[in-house]
Amino acid sequence: MRRDTIFYQLFQQSPTLLFELLPQPPENAARYTFEAVEVKETGFRLDGVFLPPDVSGTIYFSEAQFQKDEMLYERMLAEIGIYVYRNRERISDWQAVVIYPTRSIEQSNTVTVRELLASGRILRVYLDELGAIGELPMGVGLMVLTTLEGDEAKTEARSAIERSGGDRDIIEMITKIVVYKFNSLSRDEVNVMLGIELQQTRVYQEAKAEGKVEGKAEEREIGLQRERALVIKLLNRKLGDLSSQFQAQVSALSIDRVESLGEALLDFNSTTDLEVWLSQN
Length: 281
Prior knowledge:
12 helices; alpha/beta; Trna Endonuclease, Chain: A, domain 1; five-stranded mixed sheet; 3 domains; elongated
């Protein structure tokens, strides 16, 4: 999954998210709708278009840019110009918002758009300057999460899940972001890594809604065995092939201990760490 797809889904899920990035959001932000629009003649595609509830409002164009593009602003203006030309009767005013992970990604030569940048007609947002994820609104924090790597991404993802209050849509989006970043891991492995319980996953919830999951002891045991197997797989990847003794000990853990081990193993450097953890748990 590419980052622009992630941002598309974030905006689609919560169109008001864009306005949390603006110093002066419109008063009727909650009534805006989000669209992705393709300018067919040119093959251009606008990342996002936020439409006001009536023609008197400002239309917002968004672009999430995570790679250097020395013609980004020129391309955006071409796309916006064509869109405005086609939809002039629907547009009273417009503003563009470009989201960068950091200032270093921004186009170097901005002479052709200097007045638009100075006036705020094109607003730039740098995610690494917004502050700590835990202090940001959840949606904005997920944007920042897309910029993190390695252990920092794992830690912040787990913290975001804790703050989500069990919101299934938020947990699903966090999982997608982490799957994108750690593409060598399967979806189930990421769930274990993040400490996501089987009951929190969309697959489980959909199955439950269809009457396929009734909480029977047998089904719970199958889920537990699956999580144990995933933790053992992650341990093998982290520490090398485990001995049969270690595997037997992990296979005997309760669901709570398996989930705790799934988080703790991220900090393991050797089988000694695993041995100490098992002795304490």
